[in-house]
């Protein structure tokens, strides 16, 4: 009976793990009450009438069969949950790969269904970031394992040689990208010990182009080496970019853009031109979309970058192509893009008109609209000869209240970056004679989360 199996599992698992699983069950349902009953140290597994009354809250004609049905559901829930917990730790993926070669681990049908679902989720991403890409690469290596073969044969020896070759390359790539990404997001990940180990994973000059490019990016990110970026990485990328797979190409360009935006946030404004060049090449050649739609964030970032540099002709062409390249809330995205376009052309009235027409459902793009609205209000304040602070402060307070209301739907980092932006503008308005120093000091603090840094640096330069 499933209740006996569940009882054995609950006894074998640590109490904190059992408690975590219990929280995932929908309250006041039969399987949740069955779980509570089985998790009670005073339970009686042999008194089906008592168990039935507790689980169903009333007497059942055939309590044994009813309990069996609910027990099956609970066992399935527990099995799936345990699999998901192992997948989160990424141990089950490794076990499954090894099991096919060494026959150590007997994977269940439920595990394979979960793994398949995971792979489908990875493939379904409209914008696959580096971590999804690495998961996809790891899963791709399953093809080299086959537990049905005789592992003493010459065929098996060839198979293992293939495994070693691909795993050595994969581990090198994975380590390089992990170290590099960890460094590029240093505000989130801080692990000094791992940097001392990075030399173990250095690659030879004759490695494949993809490994060379990742290795260059790692060194560039570790040392903020702009010279290495301009004179080694860019020529190598240009030389090999058309030989790379679409996924590798997209991942490298994303990592390239991460480095560029970090330099801009640190005040290296020469990199705005680098960002424009990178976006122009990637978007003109379709490198960031290949078999999927263009990520809305990339589209808006490219529009802003081009508009800041007054590359209005290319910017306009990009916006006009949006309906063919984007998915989701395209109409609102296009309005927001035009609003940024007119904002940087100093057409404040047109910016305001477009902002009033935008009604995003996506919370992150509603924040984008609010941040541009704050920029618009600040520019309007600067143009006002009387310097009336009331409209701007009223809007900033409303902006802050909006974040407070929607806090559960916004990540902590984005909340912090927006609140810091609001507080910075308030401080600059309240102390206009010190505004430039306040702005410069804040921007030079590269550890501080802050949105709209390109626009804020343009204020410093003015």
Structure description:
- The structure is a single chain.
- The protein is mainly α.
- The protein is built from 24 helices and no strands.
- The protein has helices at 2-12, 15-24, 30-38, 48-56, 63-88, 91-102, 109-124, 130-140, 154-184, 192-196, 209-223, 226-240, 246-265, 271-284, 296-308, 312-320, 322-325, 330-344, 348-357, 363-383, 390-405, 412-430, 435-444, 453-461.
- Helix 16 (312-320) packs antiparallel against helix 18 and helix 22 packs antiparallel against helix 23.
- The longest helix is centred in the middle third of the chain and has 31 residues, at 154-184.
Descriptive labels:
single chain; 462 residues; mainly alpha; 71% helix; 0% strand
The count of DSSP E runs of length 2 or more, i.e. the number of strands, is 0
The DSSP helix count reads 24
Uncertain segments are 91-107, 125-131, 137-151, 185-205
**Helical amount among residues, as a percent range?**
over 70%
SSE layout:
Elements: H1 2-12, H2 15-24, H3 30-38, H4 48-56, H5 63-88, H6 91-102, H7 109-124, H8 130-140, H9 154-184, H10 192-196, H11 209-223, H12 226-240, H13 246-265, H14 271-284, H15 296-308, H16 312-320, H17 322-325, H18 330-344, H19 348-357, H20 363-383, H21 390-405, H22 412-430, H23 435-444, H24 453-461
Put the structure in a nutshell.
The chain is mostly helical and 462 residues long.
């Amino acid at each position: 009976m499933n209740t006996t199996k569940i009882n054995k599992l609950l006894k074998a698992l640590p109490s904190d793990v059992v408690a975590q699983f219990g929280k995932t069950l929908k309250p006041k349902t039969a399987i949740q009450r069955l779980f509570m009953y089985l998790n009670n140290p005073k339970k009686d597994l042999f008194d089906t009438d008592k168990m039935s009354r507790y689980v169903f809250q009333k007497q059942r004609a055939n309590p044994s069969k009813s309990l069996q049905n609910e027990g099956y559901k609970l066992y399935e829930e527990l099995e799936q949950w345990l699999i998901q917990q192992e997948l989160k730790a990424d141990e089950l993926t490794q076990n499954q790969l090894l099991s096919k070669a060494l026959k150590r681990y007997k994977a269940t049908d439920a595990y394979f269904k979960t793994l398949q679902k995971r792979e489908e989720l990875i493939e379904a991403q409209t914008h696959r970031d580096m971590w999804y890409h690495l998961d996809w690469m790891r899963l791709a290596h399953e093809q080299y394992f086959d537990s049905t073969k005789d592992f003493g044969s010459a065929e098996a020896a060839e198979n293992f040689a293939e495994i070693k070759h691909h795993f050595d390359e994969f581990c090198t790539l994975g380590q390089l990208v992990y170290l590099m990404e960890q460094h590029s997001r240093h505000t989130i990940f801080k692990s000094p010990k791992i940097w001392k180990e990075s030399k173990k994973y250095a690659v030879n000059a004759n490695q494949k182009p993809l490994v060379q490019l990742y290795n260059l990016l790692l060194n560039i990110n570790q040392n903020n080496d702009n010279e290495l970026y301009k004179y080694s990485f860019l020529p190598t990328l240009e030389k090999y970019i058309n030989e790379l797979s679409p996924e590798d190409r997209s991942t490298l360009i994303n990592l390239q853009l991460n480095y560029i935006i970090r330099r801009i946030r640190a005040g290296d404004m020469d990199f705005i031109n680098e960002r424009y060049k990178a976006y122009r090449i990637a978007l003109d050649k379709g490198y960031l979309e290949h078999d999927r739609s263009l990520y809305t964030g990339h589209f808006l970032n490219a529009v802003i970058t081009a508009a800041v540099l007054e590359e209005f002709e290319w910017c306009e062409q990009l916006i006009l192509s949006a309906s063919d390249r984007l998915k989701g809330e395209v109409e609102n995205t296009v309005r927001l893009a035009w609003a940024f376009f007119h904002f940087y052309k100093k057409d404040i009235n047109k910016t305001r008109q477009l902002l009033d027409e935008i009604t995003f459902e996506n919370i992150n793009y509603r924040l984008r609209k609010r941040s541009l609205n704050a920029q618009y209000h600040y520019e309007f304040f600067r143009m006002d000869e009387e310097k009336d602070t009331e409209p701007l402060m009223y809007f900033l307070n409303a902006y802050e209240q909006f974040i407070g209301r929607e806090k559960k739907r916004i990540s902590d980092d984005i909340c912090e970056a927006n609140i810091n932006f609001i507080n910075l503008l308030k401080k600059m308005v309240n102390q206009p004679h010190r505004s430039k120093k306040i702005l410069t000091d804040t921007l030079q603090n590269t550890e501080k989360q802050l949105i709209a840094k390109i626009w804020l640096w343009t204020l410093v330069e003015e």
